[in-house]
Design a protein that fits this description.
The chain is mostly helical. The protein has two domains: 15-130, Arc Repressor Mutant, subunit A, CATH 1.10.10.10; 133-186. Helices cover 65% and strands 5% of the residues. The protein has eight helices and two strands. The chain has helices at 19-42, 46-57, 63-70, 74-86, 108-129, 134-159, 163-167, 174-184; strands at 90-94, 102-106. A two-stranded antiparallel sheet has the order 1-2. Strand 1 (90-94) and strand 2 (102-106) form a beta hairpin. Helix 2 packs across helix 3. The chain starts with 18 loop residues before the first helix and ends with a helix.
C-alpha cells in the first residue's frame, strides 16, 4: 500500500493566519453581531437585509441579479425574496414577455424598514471603524476592492473551459494561479 508523502512542515497551513479563513471569521463575526439586531429590531435575517439594501439602491433587479451583486447563494436569495414578499416588504412583477423572469422592488413598507435600518447599520460601521486612522481606512478599502476583483477573476477563470486563454488578459497571473489550484486539487 502506497502512503502519501508527509507534509513539509514549512508548508503546513496556519489556519489562524490564512487570509481566506481570517476574512471568513471576520465576516461571520460581524454578520452574527448584526443578525441579532436585525432579527430583534426589524424582523429581518441577514439575507433579507442584503436583498432590501440592494433593491433600495437598484430597483427592478431579478433574483439572479441580486444573487450576483451580493455574492449570495441563489437558494438563500430565493428564500429571502419569498419571505420579503410574504411580509410585503418587496414586490415581484412578472415580465409579460417571459413569465420566468421577474423584477423585484421595495414596497413602501420595505422602504420604511430600509430607512430605519440604515442609520443603525451606519452607526455599527462607525463604531467598528472608530480609532482606525483615515489612511488605514483608505488602504483597507483599496485592499478589499483589489482582493474582490482578483477573487472574482480567479472564480471566472475556473469556470472557463480554457482558463489560460480566458483570464490572462484581465489579470495576468490569474491563469497560472488557477492552473496551480487545479494541480493542488483546489
Amino acid at each position: 500500500m502506497k502512503h502519501a508523502p508527509s507534509a513539509d512542515p514549512s508548508r503546513t497551513l496556519d489556519l489562524e493566519r490564512f487570509l481566506p479563513y481570517r476574512l471568513s471569521v471576520l465576516a461571520n463575526t460581524m454578520s452574527t453581531a448584526l443578525a441579532g439586531a436585525y432579527a430583534e429590531r426589524f424582523q429581518l435575517s441577514i439575507p433579507e437585509w442584503r436583498v432590501l439594501a440592494v433593491l433600495a439602491r437598484s430597483p427592478d433587479l431579478s433574483a439572479a441579479q441580486v444573487a450576483q451583486r451580493t455574492a449570495m447563494d441563489k437558494v438563500a436569495v430565493s428564500r429571502a425574496v419569498a419571505s420579503l414578499c410574504r411580509a410585503r416588504r418587496i414586490e415581484r412583477d412578472v415580465q409579460a414577455a417571459d413569465r420566468r423572469r421577474s423584477r423585484l422592488r421595495l414596497t413602501s413598507q420595505g422602504r420604511a424598514v430600509y430607512d430605519q435600518v440604515v442609520p443603525w447599520a451606519l452607526a455599527y460601521e462607525d463604531a467598528l471603524l472608530r480609532g482606525i486612522a483615515p489612511d488605514a481606512r483608505a488602504a483597507l478599502d483599496q485592499l478589499i476592492d483589489e482582493l474582490t476583483m482578483r477573487a472574482r477573476a480567479m472564480a471566472a477563470a475556473r469556470a472557463e473551459p480554457d482558463p489560460t486563454a480566458a483570464a490572462a488578459d484581465a489579470v495576468p497571473s490569474v491563469a497560472s494561479d488557477n492552473k496551480m489550484l487545479r494541480t493542488l486539487g483546489g
